[in-house]
Amino acid sequence: MKNKQIINSWNKIEPDDALKNRMLAKILIQLESEVHQEKKTFSMKKVYKPLAVCLLLAVVFYVLLFKGGNIMQNHSAYPETQVQNDNPKNKNPISTAKKQVFSGFVLTVYAAEVEGTNLSVNYKEDAISTVLTPKVEVLLANYSPLISSVPGLPFSFDFNDSDSDSLKPDSIKVTIDYGELLTWNMETGIVNFEGTSISRQTGDTLYWSPLIPLNGNEEIEGNLEYEGASQGVQKGVVEKAQITVTAMKDGKEIGKQTIYITEIDGDYYATVGELIIIA
Question: How far is Cα 109 from Cα 160, in angstroms, rounded to an integer?
Fold first, then answer.
């Protein structure tokens, strides 16, 4: 009796044919889905894996070809060595030092606003302090050696020190082809005749006079006008002159520039040529 009850109970639990078919169909659908997913994953792996390898090889090739030289040159394989190489004290001064060259002059004249302006003893206040630049002509004051209270046209000579790496001159040599160079102490009024060449420290003011001694054998560019006797020597006035300014360093020339002076109807004009750097 008991066994019969167990069999009847099992028959109730055991699914019928319709349920079995539904369960089997569901299992088959699930298995088919899993198989399809595995095939899709495997297919994607087949595509992306070679692509990733190609991209990696391309990156390695780019680094070795274009960046490898700089990396090997600028970085050491050992951190300690790299720190030493970056230390300025360990750098070769021959290979890294920048060659110093002369940076140029600051040549200053005192310009007039209009023609016919006479040069006065207070020219620093009355005239316009102007730095000469190439191809620019500057009108200077009207100067006459006989009536002017100033010994000559003033010029200030200095060098450009704005560049800290530039080569600084020890002195400046000033040479003229015609006329006279003079120094003047404005406080004492003492005038010294320096001839046609003088070496001075930078920042000094020199005076150029158009007067030249006459000995009857002059061959001077431009007209020569008789101006009278000075200290028993007849002198004339030149219309054109050149003032050559040379920067000196340890007895050697490192730079040169020329000022050109012309006179028209008593008014003087000045311009300057290009700077010449002497290696």
Answer: 16
Distance CA 112, CA 269 (A): 10
DSSP state of 166: S
- Tell me the β-bridge partners of 108: 131, 156
* Structure letter (DSSP) for residue 170: S
Alpha-helix runs per DSSP H in the chain: 2-13, 17-62, 68-74, 79-86, 93-96, 123-126
Q: Collapsing DSSP states into helix, strand and coil, what is residue 14?
A: coil
The closest alpha carbon to 240, from 212, 216, 201, belongs to 212
Spatial distance between the Cα atoms of 273 and 276, rounded to a whole number of angstroms: 9
Q: Between residues 68 and 31, which one has the greater pLDDT?
A: 31
- Measure Cα distances from 111 to 41, 134, 174, 185, 202 in Å: 90, 16, 21, 21, 21
The encoded tokens of residue 189 equal 């009024």
Predicted pLDDT at 146? 78
Distance CA 5, CA 268 (A): 142
Show the tokens assigned to 82. 């790299």
CA angle 202, 241, 258 (to 5 degrees): 45
Q: Which two tokens stand for residue 275?
A: 């700077």
Long-range pairs of 66-69 with CB within 8 A, sequence gap ≥ 24:
none
Average pLDDT for residues 22-37, to the nearest whole number? 67
